[in-house]
Amino acid sequence: MLKATKDAMPGFFKHIVVVNDTVPHNARSTFFNERCCLYEDPRILLSVDDQYLHLTGIYFQSFKYFQGMRKELTSYLKEANISNLPGSDKNTFVTCLHIRRGDFLKYGLAASDAVFIKTALEFIKKREKKNKKPRKVTVIFGDDLKFMKSLYNGSVTSNEPQGQNATHFISQNSPSDDLVYSKNNCDVVFISAPHSTFGWWLGYFSKGDKVYYMDIRVTNDKSYINGDLHEMDYYLPHWIPLRLSADNQTIIQSNRII
Question: What is the CATH number of the domain that holds 204?
Answer without folding.
Answer: 3.40.50
